[in-house]
Structure formats: structure tokens, C-alpha cells
Specification:
The protein is an alpha+beta fold. It has helices at residues 47-60, 99-104, and strands spanning 3-4, 12-13, 23-31, 41-44, 69-75, 78-87, 92-96, 112-119. It has a 6-stranded antiparallel β-barrel. Strand 1 and strand 2 form a beta hairpin. The protein is globular, with a radius of gyration of 14 Å. 25% of the residues are buried.
Length: 120
């Protein structure tokens, strides 16, 4: 599944192949308002990818704490394992992007990034 941002900057589907394990989308990095001093940086996972991750995770059994889903992620040249977490405000998952990833890829809050992820 690939995503490209339209003029408004929100990810939109550009195609889907049944059975794809990897989900790719572009989205803007943003700071969590409650923890700005700690620079917790996130990407909001688009609704279609959120739904696919929920389906894939639910097929494997109960989810982890707080309704999170374990994922493998690639941004630029960096790959890591983490979890995506449900966000009640957007109704989507949010993906934390740690400082080491931002530094390795010269990205910061406000930048648009391409994210490749799959459930693990």
C-alpha cells in the first residue's frame, strides 16, 4: 500500500494490493503537546493503514498494552522495531520516531517523511 500526500498534506491511498505485508505512506512529523520539552515526536498513521494494522494484529491474537501493535519500521536508511499506539483524537495509530532516527535521517518536527512499516 503506497501513500502520497495531496495538496492538503494528508496521506491518501494511491493503490492497494491484497496480501501486502508492508505499508508505505508519507506523513508529517509532529511534537506531542503534552511532552514538548522532551521532544516526543510522532507520525500519524493514515486511517487505511491503521485499519489494515488492526486487522493484521487482531488475526494474530490479543494486542499488547494500551491497544498497541508491534511493528517493524523503516524511515530513510534506519530500520527499527517499536509499537504504534491508538490516538483517541485522530482515531488512528501514532508512531513514535525516536531522536536517533531523526538525527540519522536529518529530519525534525514539521518535515514530511516516508514510512515503511509492517506488523511483527
Amino acid at each position: 500500500m503506497s501513500r502520497t500526500p495531496p495538496a492538503g498534506g494528508r496521506p491518501q491511498p494511491s493503490g492497494s494490493d491484497a496480501g501486502d505485508d508492508e505499508h508505505t505512506f508519507t506523513a508529517e512529523l509532529w511534537l506531542w503537546d503534552a511532552r514538548k520539552t522532551d521532544t516526543w515526536t510522532f507520525v500519524t498513521v493514515p486511517p487505511e493503514v491503521t485499519a489494515a494494522l488492526e486487522d493484521e494484529s487482531d488475526a494474530r491474537g490479543p494486542r499488547a498494552g494500551f491497544g498497541s501493535v508491534k511493528v517493524s519500521v523503516r524511515v530513510g536508511s534506519t530500520t527499527w522495531r517499536t509499537s504504534v499506539f491508538p490516538d483517541s483524537a485522530s482515531g488512528c495509530f501514532v508512531l513514535p520516531v525516536k531522536r536517533a532516527v531523526r538525527l540519522a535521517n536529518a529530519i525534525e518536527a514539521g518535515d514530511t517523511v516516508t514510512v515503511h512499516l509492517r506488523t511483527i
